[in-house]
Design a protein that fits this description.
It is built from 20 helices and eleven strands. By secondary structure, the chain is an alpha/beta fold. The strands form two sheets. Strands 1-2-4-3-5-6-9-10-11 form a nine-stranded mixed beta sheet, with helices on both faces. A hairpin with a 2-residue loop joins strand 7 and strand 8.
C-alpha cells in the first residue's frame, strides 16, 4: 500500500509540474525532422558575420596559441529576427597556412560537456601533416560553459542518479527530477527549450559560414558522434571529413543509451574486480573477484544506511553507483576508483574522509554540466511521463544488474520537461564518415556504433577490441586506430573495408 501511495504522489507531482512549468509545451510531431536546405536570406547576417578574435583567458588555450571569439546565432532559428545568443569558440590555427584546407570542429560528448579547450588535447593525437591543414576549433555548445549557459536554480552536480533499493528511494529521485526540471525551465524557458542538438548543428553551420568555408571537418566523441551524425543528416552537402568516436544510435538516444549502460557497466565492474583482487595487498577489497564485487555491493548498501553530506556532495545509494560508473570508462582510472571507494568506506564508517579528493577525481572523469545535459537531452527527445513505467523497469532488472540497473532505468528531469520544439533527427544518409567503436565501451555500447554505421551507409567502422574503454582515439592507446584517423584527415582515405584494431598493451597499468 505504501509503495502504491508513493507512486500516486509521484504522478501528482508530475501533474503539478505540468501545470506550473510545461504550460508552453507543444505536441510532438510524429514525423522525424528533415534535412535543411540553403540558409534563408534572413540568416545571412549570421553566416556573414566577422569574428572578433581575442585572447581566451585560459592558460591551456593561451599556451597552445589559441584565440577565442563569440559567434552570434539565433536563439530560435524559426525566428531569425528575434532574440540571439552567443556561442563561444576557440581556434588553434593551421600550422601551414599555405596548406590550409579548412576548419575542424569538435565536441567532447556529454551532452553538456564544455568543448572550448578540447582541441588542446586532440591536437596531440594528430600528426604534423594534419595539424598543418586545419584550424582546430573548440566550441562550448549553446547553453554550456561560456556560451550563455542554461541556469538551473537547483545547482546539482549531475542530473543522473541511481534509484536506490526500494520505492522510497525511487520516490526521492522522482521528486528531485521534477524539481530539477522546474528549476531549469523557469528562469528562461525559451533558452532552455531551444538548447537542442539540432540547433547546435545549425550553430555549427553558421560557424562554417563565418569562416567562409564551403565544407566543415569534424571530430566528436560519445554524444559528439550523435551531434556529428545530426549535422551529416541536416547539412550533409557541407560536410567533409567526419570522425565519429564511440557512436550513438539515433533510435536509442538517449533513453535506450542509458539502459544499455546497465549491462556494460556490470561487466566493467567484473573486469575491475579482477584488477582489484590482483591488488588486494594495496586496497583490501577482496582476494578474489567475487569477493571484490561482494564488497562493492555491500558498500552501496552501507551508504544507504549511513548517508554523508559534505562540501556540496552526497554519499549514499543514489550517488555511489554513479561515482563508479564515471571511473569505469578507462582502465587507467582503476586506481582512482579504488581510492574513491576507500573514501566512501571511510565516510560511511564514520572515519575522517577526504571529500575534496573524491570530488576532484569524479569531476575530472566527467566534466559535464547538469544544466546543459538536461536541456539538450530533454529538448531533443521526449521521455515517458509515467513514474510507474520507470519503476517497473528498475524492479525487473535488479537481479541481473544489482549495481547499475537502478541507474540505467531511472527517471530523470526529462519526464517533466516540456515537449521538444521539433521532432528528433532520424539518420539515414550516404555521407562519408569514419566511425570508431569499442567492443567493451561502458558509455555507448558497441551495438550503438554498429547501428550508426548501418544508418550512415557510406561510412567505415573501425572496431577497437579487447579493452574496456570509452573513446578509441587516444594518444598511445592503439597505433592502428591513430594511423587510420590521421590518414583520413590527411588525405581523405578511408579503409577499403571495416576492420578491427587491437590496443597497445603498454597503454594500460599493471
Amino acid at each position: 500500500m505504501r509503495a502504491r501511495w508513493f507512486l500516486m504522489r509521484a504522478r501528482w507531482f508530475r501533474r503539478m509540474a505540468a501545470v506550473g512549468v510545461l504550460a508552453a509545451a507543444v505536441v510532438i510531431p510524429v514525423s522525424p525532422a528533415s534535412a535543411e536546405g540553403d540558409p534563408p536570406a534572413a540568416l545571412a547576417r549570421f553566416y556573414d558575420q566577422a569574428l572578433d578574435w581575442k585572447p581566451c583567458g585560459d592558460p591551456a588555450l593561451d599556451g597552445a596559441g589559441a584565440q577565442c571569439a563569440g559567434v552570434r546565432v539565433p536563439l530560435d532559428y524559426g525566428r531569425p529576427d528575434g532574440r540571439t545568443t552567443t556561442v563561444a569558440i576557440s581556434r588553434i590555427p593551421a600550422t601551414d597556412p599555405a596548406r590550409r584546407r579548412g576548419i575542424m570542429l569538435s565536441n567532447p560528448g556529454g551532452p553538456g560537456g564544455p568543448g572550448l579547450s578540447m582541441m588542446v588535447t586532440v591536437r596531440d593525437r594528430l600528426t604534423p601533416d594534419v595539424r598543418a591543414q586545419y584550424d582546430l576549433i573548440g566550441m562550448d555548445p549553446r547553453g554550456i560553459g561560456r556560451s550563455d549557459r542554461v541556469h538551473c536554480a537547483i545547482p546539482l552536480p549531475t542530473m543522473l542518479f541511481s534509484a536506490g533499493f526500494d520505492v522510497f528511494g525511487y520516490a526521492r529521485d522522482t521528486a528531485l527530477a521534477g524539481a530539477l526540471a522546474a528549476s531549469c525551465i523557469a528562469p528562461d524557458p525559451d533558452k532552455a527549450r531551444h538548447t537542442t542538438t539540432r540547433n547546435i548543428a545549425r550553430d555549427m553551420d553558421v560557424i562554417r559560414g563565418a569562416f567562409g568555408d564551403e565544407r566543415v571537418n569534424y571530430y566528436g566523441g560519445s554524444y559528439g558522434s550523435y551531434l556529428g551524425g545530426v549535422y551529416l543528416q541536416m547539412f550533409g552537402r557541407h560536410a567533409d571529413r567526419f570522425v565519429l568516436d564511440s557512436g550513438v544510435d539515433d533510435e536509442r538516444y538517449w533513453l535506450g543509451m542509458f539502459q544499455d549502460m546497465g549491462g556494460t557497466n556490470e561487466a566493467a565492474l567484473d573486469d575491475w574486480s579482477i584488477w582489484a583482487a590482483r591488488h588486494d595487498g594495496d586496497h583490501h577489497f577482496g582476494a578474489t573477484p567475487p569477493q571484490v564485487r561482494g564488497y562493492v555491493e555491500n558498500l552501496v548498501r552501507r551508504a544507504a544506511g549511513h548517508p554523508v553530506f559534505s562540501d556540496g556532495y552526497l554519499i549514499d545509494e543514489h550517488t555511489v553507483p554513479m561515482m563508479m560508473l564515471s571511473l569505469l570508462a578507462n582502465p587507467k582510472l582503476d586506481a582512482d576508483l579504488a581510492d574513491v571507494l576507500r573514501i566512501v568506506d571511510d565516510a560511511v564508517s564514520g572515519r575522517p574522509f577526504d571529500m575534496k579528493t573524491l570530488k576532484a577525481k569524479i569531476t575530472a572523469a566527467v566534466p559535464t554540466e547538469a544544466s546543459g545535459m538536461a536541456a539538450i537531452m530533454c529538448g531533443d527527445k521526449a521521455a515517458p511521463r509515467d513514474p510507474a513505467w520507470y519503476y517497473r523497469n528498475i524492479e525487473a532488472i535488479r537481479a541481473a544488474q544489482p549495481v547499475f540497473g537502478a541507474f540505467a532505468n531511472n527517471i530523470t528531469a526529462c519526464a517533466y520537461w516540456p515537449d521538444p520544439v521539433e521532432p528528433p533527427t532520424e539518420m539515414n544518409n550516404a555521407n562519408q564518415a569514419l566511425i570508431l567503436g569499442t567492443i567493451h565501451d561502458t558509455r555507448t555500447a558497441y551495438t550503438q556504433s554498429l547501428a550508426l554505421h548501418r544508418d550512415l551507409t557510406a561510412s567505415r567502422l573501425v572496431t577497437l577490441a579487447n579493452t574496456r574503454i570509452h573513446g578509441a582515439f587516444r594518444v598511445g592507446l592503439s597505433p592502428c586506430v591513430s594511423d587510420i584517423v590521421n590518414t583520413y584527415f590527411d588525405d581523405g582515405t578511408l579503409p577499403a573495408a571495416d576492420l578491427t584494431c587491437e590496443p597497445d598493451p603498454s597503454y594500460f597499468p599493471e
